[in-house]
Amino acid sequence: MRNQTNKLLWIALWLIVPSGGDSASPEEVGAQRDIEKEILRITKDQWDAEIQGDSERMLKHLSADYTEFHPSFTSRLDLDLKRELVVAESRSNEQLVAAQMADAKVQVFGDVAVLSYNFLGLTESSGEINKVNVKSTRVYARQNDRWVVVHANYAPNR
User: Fold this and answer.
1) Secondary structure of residue 145 in the 3-state scheme
2) What string of pLDDT tens digits covers the 158 residues of the chain?
């Protein structure tokens, strides 16, 4: 009876656990890398747009149903509120002057991609330079043949 149970367990595990023989083809690996590069390019384009004060270019990468959690706010932001904040920030004294990502990882799941990274930036306000160090997660979705940010979550690195 015990041998029979062990055999059934092994058969169940064999059916459930992937064998590793399902490796991706070179074309699939290439497509995956292209998506990863596009996600990183979009993120850096948003930062460049912010540095240059181009709020419309920054916002064009956000989905119509975009949401965001940000440590400066107690509630979730939606696209309308984000738009107001981006326009207000572009008129403020404090400006992003440099942006970089560390430990970036893009995970792709069909038409959804998740980018997690540490944001390292510098802002300038009234001649004073401040460091910004934030843990970041962005969720992208492919909508109408383009990748857009559908959600972002930012938290201070402590």
Assistant:
1) coil
2) 555 545 544 444 344 444 444 577 888 888 889 999 999 999 999 999 988 989 999 999 999 999 999 988 889 999 999 999 888 887 788 889 999 999 999 999 999 999 999 999 999 988 999 999 999 999 999 999 999 999 999 999 87
Work out the number of other CB atoms within 10 angstroms of the CB of residue 79. Answer: 15
Structure tokens at 112: 């959804």
- Dig out the tokens for 19 from the structure: 């064998």
The residues near 147 (Cβ < 8 Å, ≥ 6 apart) are 35, 38, 39, 42, 113, 140, 141
Q: Which tokens in the block code for residue 75?
A: 């509630």
Identify the structural domains of the chain with CATH numbers, from first to last: 25-156 (3.10.450.50)
Q: Is the dihedral of CA 108, 38, 45, 149 positive or negative?
A: negative
Six-digit token string for 124: 């300038």
Q: Determine the Cα–Cα distance for residues 8 and 37; give it in Å rounded to an integer.
A: 45
User: How is the chain split among helix, strand and coil, in percent rounded to 5?
Assistant: 35, 40, 20
